[in-house]
Amino acid sequence: MAEVAIPRTRPARLDVYRPFTRADAIAAGISPALLRGPKFKLIFRGVYIHASTPVRPLTRVQAALLIYPSGAFASHASAGRVYGVPLPALPDEHVSVLADKDRRRRKGIRNHVAPQDRTVVTVRDIPVSTPEDMFVELSEILTLVDLVVVGDALVRLKLTTPEALVERCATASADAQRAAALVRRNVDSPMETRLRLLIVFAGLPEPDINFKIYYRDGTVRYRFDLSYPEFRILVEYDGRQHRDDLDQWDSDTKRQDWFDHNGWMRVPVFSRGIYRRPDETIRRVASALRSRGAKVPARLSDDWMPHFPVRP
User: Fold this and answer.
1) Could you give the 3-state DSSP secondary structure of residue 93?
2) H-helix or E-strand containing 94?
3) CATH for 202
4) Residue 242 maps to a domain
5) What is the per-residue burial (b if ≥16 Cβ within 10 Å, else e) of 128-155?
6) CA triple 261-264-268, angle to 5 deg
């Protein structure tokens, strides 16, 4: 009787420069001993990547999802990393599942159980919460100010609208509702959001966002982040580049000359005026408004204090 040759199973092809599981590695012919060596590094227990590949935030999200069964999706801070919105330092990944049995215990990953009818979208080939759902999820772990920063960024990235956030948060927590009501269009940066909130929480009038000054031909000459056009007051956050870049310095000097000749008062604010001495910023803005005849309460609100602590 002739022998029948049994074909050998070829190892599965594996891209080791993307996150992969231990089971994937063994199926591809990579031994456990090789996985433990210097050629690969561990992202989470049971999930690896080639040692030469940097583990970026998005890589960690992809790695975390490999641990879970189909239907799991990135939520909370992990969803924020997928969408690319500004977040404070949050070390853990967040994965939502649709049933309690689908939870997985791993150091560095937080589990959540979402409703069965939760809408999930795909962004960068990653299943993720919708922008509006993510905003509500983040209300559980972010401060009010950081949450409004996220909301302003989502609107800037054209991922949602202030109205959509308000509608979604109508059945959410009071914190989520308050944050959604403070989200605005046309906000260019997180520091602009923080400066605006500091002013508003102090009980001062809310400044206009992205007010424009035009040339006679209709092109934009200047665009002001925060301003009170009625009183010709500009409140502007100045990043470090405005002091270190000579071309920027020259441009700013020309702008200041234009302000002086056209009766505009500029109130520049640096990071110190938000993170260390917000009280000074409030005083300066209030003083500018009073000097131009604006109605400013004799006693300002203290609501800003829990969100912007003074650090002499």
Assistant:
1) strand
2) strand 93-97
3) 3.40.960
4) yes
5) bbbbbbbbbbbbebbebbbbbbbbbbbb
6) 120
For residues 12 and 29, give the distance between their C-alpha atoms in angstroms, rounded to a whole number: 8
Residues 122 and 158 in one domain: yes
| pTM of this prediction exceeds 0.85 | yes
Give which of 195, 263, 185, 268 is closest to 230, Cα–Cα. 263
69: containing domain: 56-181
26 within a domain of the structure (yes/no) = no
In three-state secondary structure terms, 173 is: coil
On whether both 69 and 143 belong to a single domain, the answer is yes
Q: Are residues 95 and 160 both part of a single domain?
A: yes
For every residue of 224-244, DSSP letters joined together read: EEEEEGGGTEEEEE--THHHH
**pLDDT tens sequence for the chain (312 residues):** 445 444 454 556 899 999 999 999 999 999 999 999 999 999 999 999 999 999 999 999 999 999 999 999 999 999 999 999 999 999 999 999 999 999 999 999 999 999 999 999 999 999 999 999 999 999 999 999 999 999 999 999 999 999 999 999 999 999 999 999 999 999 999 999 999 999 999 999 999 999 999 999 999 999 999 999 999 999 999 886 545 566 666 677 888 899 989 999 999 999 999 999 999 999 999 999 999 999 999 999 999 999 999 998
Q: Are residues 258 and 149 both part of a single domain?
A: no
Crossing angle for the helix pair 278-291 and 190-201, nearest 10 degrees?
A: 70
Domain limit, last residue, from 181, 211, 231: 181
User: Cα(246)–Cα(51) distance, rounded to whole angstroms?
Assistant: 41
In a domain, 229, yes or no: yes
Give dist(CA 121, CA 254) in Å, integer: 47
* Domain contains 1: no
DSSP state of 214: E
- Domain tally for the chain? 2
